[in-house]
Design goal:
The structure holds 2 protein chains of 2 kinds. Chain A is of the alpha+beta class. Chain A has 7 helices and 11 strands. The chains are: A alpha+beta, B alpha+beta.
Chain lengths: 208, 808
């Protein structure tokens, strides 16, 4: 049995990064809900955003925030490899700019976009990839290889269960950890904003 | 002194010259600064061009395009090149689009409310702040949240970003991988501004070399190619081509001259001895100019070396007249009156340049006078001690005898010369086409593909026009900044109408104090702002206590003295503003650089209506060339009169001397009137060939459709100098048959040498070399033939074939 269906058969089997990348790859079109908790010393309480990530085609990544405001960020990559982002906010005319002007968006494209595309080469060109855990519960850490990415970003850790990516944890060099809950984790997050609860949800640990 | 010792001394002399040449070339400060060469500016445009501008803001820009690799590789090369060049003091500015907020230094941050136009239309009230805070919440929630977060507390309206964005060059290209790329995304683009002036070929060469070296390092072993464009790059490229061509021409010249001299004198030492006066003259000229002026102009050196070409003939006369039975010193003494007449009259002519009031012409005068005197004196005093005292006598040459006999049959034209002169004058005056070419750059044309490449890059980068710039004049910086601001709406309209693609001005970076004060007026006081902020924060996710810095900065901005140009020193804004705002004592000029100028006439009209002027730098510099040429022509007119007078005096002295000799030997003394008549006849015989040849050259050039330039003028002066010497020596040969043959030998060698050198130049593909070459080659030919026809002495009794034919 183990040899017939290895991926489903043995949830306790150890995983490697190839396995994680393989299960994360989603051919376009695809979409997934997210909940993002953004804490800042400037805010009374962490900002809780929910919405949807979409990949309508291979060259486009859409991040649509629905609550507490509506904002759609569309990142497209043209044939020459140049990416640009368009940010559309309610009541404002959309702004378009080259992605290279906003390294943070470029990073999103480089990590999240590459993950969804199953593009190991793109990912490996920016990050060292470490994966550990079992098929039941795994995590994969992406550590930037070089400046300018490594100047701002300590690492990105992906947490998952089985074939489901549940959370992306982004640790900047300065400032607070930012967490994006996806799929099943996003669905159960409800109104959760407490840092500890979000962290537990993200890492798939029992909620305190 | 035996032959070996003599030649050792000659070699020693040569070695000394080489040493001195090496020393001078190491210490000589060659300048390409037009201000050193052109006459003092007179019109307002000329004054601006020469005194304040030196040149337009576009002329010091080098445009760089990197291609031939993928975008990330090109971006990496662009960044490496940027880092290397930014650290190099030769460059005032290096931009590749990789800019960040550091454009505004910390100490100037509170000025953001005075620099940003927000307050012109929008007070910092509760409603505006509330809207801005909402936006900031969304910014924090965006993937770029970490970028914005550190700014929000002190700058919730993100004024810093608005100012930083406004400081980007107008019409900046798109950015890929953080650096500028062309629209197709295939070429990474950079703009480099040199400190060296665009017309300083040495400085531009250094800059181009530095860029090439930095690029080679940035590329490493990777793929890719770099294209450099802009006035500086062109001048370097053309300079290189001119030098390469001049070099091969020089090599052929040297070989040709050595062969010619060896054949003519059957001695391998002659080429070495023959070069000594010319080389000494060149060094003396350079030395004299270096001593008397600070900075020798490159054009002085080029013109000067052309003009002293005449001294190459001096040693030839000595060589050709040397014969057994006469010591070289006696020989030199006998030639001296003729040689000295030529040298003195030419020197007196060049002296007029000293009073031209133009630094460049004064340098030229000093250079040529020093060169001519040193060459003449060394031919008179030093060279005779070094040459072989008993070579073969050219008077024994059968070939020369046959040639001289043949010339006896040539007509001795009189009235036909008048017809010839009139025809040449008519052709010169009536030939179609412009007489003068004032655009010096036409002589060193930029290849068409390079021009197309430049236009393409200039459009991609939105780089300023090299030829046109708008100027605003006023009593101080503030006045011209205010005038610039008043001009802006009209310029924006021109951009919308398509007459202009874009513009740049100092006021875009630094508003006038008046505008800054008006913005200060609309800033709320601390209490009002606090109240507005509290209202805006009431329903906001932001904490109320994080905007203290904002309130402080606004309070500071409200009381700051307006930011003035001087305070920008040491910031990246210094270059941007400094290049466009030229302050002086009691006067200031603001420049508006223009990009993609489609309709100069319309822009000029709109500028005039708004108190600005469109400066056509090409027209201004051409008017300087005209003024320069005017000075040269005036000096030449005086020079020709002085030259004629000098020759007349020399001829009179010579006639009187001959009469004394005749008297001493018992011949009857002719009447006084005979002296004057003979003097006039000989003066005319000496001056006519050069005058007619000048007319001939002008007529031929005009009939060939050539527009004359300063280089033609200089070549004409050289040709006239050569013609004077030819005529003087033909005249000097007198009635001694043997001497006539020796003179014929000397003049054939002289003219063949000069013809060889300048004929090869005339074959050059570079117009400036061609202009000089064709003019002088024509002049040598015309002068030799006319001198032979007009100046040769009449037949003499001891001439075996004494039957001169005169025309009726």
């Amino acid at each position: 049995m183990a040899s017939a269906a290895p991926q489903a058969a043995d949830p306790g089997a150890a995983i490697d990064s190839d396995w994680v990348l393989r299960i994360l790859a989603r051919p376009a079109p695809m979409r997934t809900n997210f909940v993002e908790i953004r804490s800042s010393r400037l805010l009374k309480e962490p900002l809780r955003l929910s919405g949807e990530y979409q990949r309508p085609d291979e060259h486009t990544l859409v991040r649509q925030v629905r609550v507490p405001y509506v904002e759609t960020t569309t990142i497209t990559t043209d044939a020459a490899g140049a990416s640009q982002a368009t940010v559309a906010r309610e009541g404002k005319s959309p702004r378009t700019f080259a992605l290279s002007r906003v390294p943070e968006l470029a990073r999103l494209q480089a990590s999240f976009g590459a993950l969804l595309a199953g593009n190991r080469a793109a990912l490996a060109s920016h990050y060292d990839i470490h994966a550990e855990g079992t098929r039941r519960k795994w995590e994969m850490r992406l550590v930037p290889k070089a400046a300018p990415l490594s100047d701002k970003l300590r690492d990105i850790t992906l947490y998952g269960r089985g074939i489901e990516l549940r959370c992306i944890e982004t640790r900047p060099v300065e400032g607070d950890v930012q967490r994006t809950l996806l799929a099943g984790a996003a669905r159960v997050a409800h109104e959760t904003t407490s840092a500890a609860a979000v962290m537990a949800l993200c890492r798939g640990e029992p909620t305190p | 002194m035996d032959a070996r010792l003599r030649f050792t001394f000659a070699l020693l002399w040569l070695a000394l010259l080489l040493l001195a040449g090496w020393w001078i070339s190491a210490h000589l400060q060659l300048t390409g600064d037009l201000r050193k060469f052109m006459p003092a500016p007179e019109t307002p445009e000329q004054k601006l061009l020469i005194d304040e501008l030196g040149e337009g803001p576009g002329s010091r820009l080098l445009l760089v395009a990197l291609s031939g690799a993928d975008a990330p590789a090109l971006a990496a090369q662009s960044k490496a090149l940027h880092a290397a060049l930014a650290a190099d003091d030769q460059f005032a500015l290096v931009a590749n689009g990789d800019a960040d907020l550091d454009a505004i230094p910390e100490r100037l941050r509170p000025y953001r409310y005075l620099l940003s136009p927000t307050l012109d239309v929008q007070p910092l009230d509760a409603a505006y702040l509330a809207g801005q805070l909402d936006e900031r919440v969304q910014d924090l929630g965006s993937p770029a949240g970490a970028l914005v977060e550190p700014l929000v507390g002190s700058d919730p309206t993100l004024e810093t970003l608005k100012v930083a964005e406004a400081l980007q060059p107008a019409n900046a290209p798109q950015r890929v991988q953080g650096v500028w790329f062309d629209r197709a995304g295939k070429r990474a683009l950079l703009v480099v501004q040199t400190r060296a002036a665009g017309f300083d070929p040495t400085g531009q060469q250094r800059a181009v070399d530095a860029i090439n070296a930095a690029y080679a390092k940035a590329r490493g072993n990777g793929a890719g190619a770099m294209v450099l464009s802009g006035p500086g790059a062109f001048s370097v490229e053309i300079g290189g081509r001119t030098e390469a061509e001049a070099q091969w021409i020089g090599t052929f010249d040297t070989i040709g001259l050595v062969v010619l001299l060896i054949v003519a004198y059957r001695s391998w030492k002659i080429p070495v001895l023959g070069v000594l006066p010319l080389a000494s003259a060149g060094l003396a000229g350079l030395g004299a100019v270096a001593l008397l002026f600070d900075g020798v102009h490159g054009i002085t050196v080029a013109f000067g070396f052309t003009l002293i070409g005449v001294v190459q003939d001096y040693p030839i006369h000595l060589f050709s007249h040397q014969r057994p039975g006469v010591t070289p010193l006696q020989n030199a003494r006998a030639l001296w009156p003729t040689l000295a007449t030529g040298v003195v009259s030419t020197c007196i002519a060049y002296f007029t340049f000293l009073f031209s009031g133009v630094d460049g012409l004064q340098q030229l005068a000093v250079f040529t006078v020093a060169g001519l005197l040193v060459a003449a004196l060394s031919t008179r005093l030093l060279l005779p001690r070094l040459i072989d005292p008993t070579p073969r006598d050219f008077a024994d040459s059968r070939l020369l005898a046959r040639m001289w006999a043949w010339t006896r049959h040539l007509p001795r034209p009189r009235w036909s010369l008048l017809a010839f002169a009139l025809a040449a004058l008519a052709a010169t005056a009536l030939a179609p086409g412009a007489f003068w070419q004032n655009d010096l750059s036409k002589l060193t044309p930029v290849p068409a593909d390079a021009l197309a490449r430049d236009a393409d890059l200039r459009a991609e980068l939105g780089a300023p026009d090299v030829r046109y710039v708008l100027t605003l004049q006023g009593r101080d910086d503030e006045a011209v900044l205010e005038a610039s601001e008043r001009l802006r709406p009209a310029l924006d309209q021109l951009v919308r109408d398509g007459a202009l693609a874009g513009y740049d001005m100092a006021a875009r970076y630094l508003p006038s104090a008046a505008v800054q004060r008006a913005r200060q007026q609309s800033l709320p006081d601390a209490a009002t702002l606090r109240a507005a902020l509290d209202a805006a924060l009431a329903d906001s996710p932001f904490r109320a206590d994080v905007f203290g810095e904002f309130v402080d900065d606004v309070a500071k901005a409200k009381t700051l003295p307006p930011l003035l140009p001087a305070q920008l020193a040491g910031t990246p804004l210094e270059t941007a503003v400094g290049g466009l705002l030229l302050g002086g004592s009691g006067h200031a000029t603001a420049l508006v650089s223009l990009a993609g100028l489609e309709d100069p006439a319309e822009v000029a009209r709109v500028a005039r209506l708004n108190g600005a002027a469109l400066l056509d730098m090409k027209a201004a510099s051409e008017s300087l060339v005209v003024a320069y040429r005017g000075r040269v022509l005036a000096a030449l007119a005086v020079a020709s009169l002085l030259l004629a007078l000098t020759v007349w005096i020399a001829m009179r002295l010579s006639v009187l001397a001959q009469q004394r000799v005749a008297h001493a030997t018992g011949a009857p003394r002719p009447p006084r009137a005979g002296v004057t008549g003979e003097t006039a006849r000989r003066t005319a015989r000496v001056l006519l060939p050069m005058a007619l040849t000048t007319l001939l050259i002008l007529a031929v050039l005009r009939l060939c459709g050539v527009e004359l330039t300063l280089f033609h003028l200089v070549a004409l002066i050289l040709a006239a100098g050569l013609g004077l010497d030819y005529a003087l020596f033909f005249d000097h040969a007198g009635d001694d048959y043997a001497d006539q043959l020796r003179t014929l030998h000397a003049l054939i060698v002289c003219s063949l040498m000069t013809l060889l050198v300048f004929f090869l130049l005339a074959l050059s593909s570079i117009p400036v070399l061609r202009a000089i070459g064709s003019t002088v080659a024509l002049g040598v030919f015309g002068n030799f033939v006319l001198a032979l026809l007009i100046s040769r002495q009449p037949a003499t009794p001891n001439d075996p074939d004494a039957a001169g034919v005169s025309d009726p």
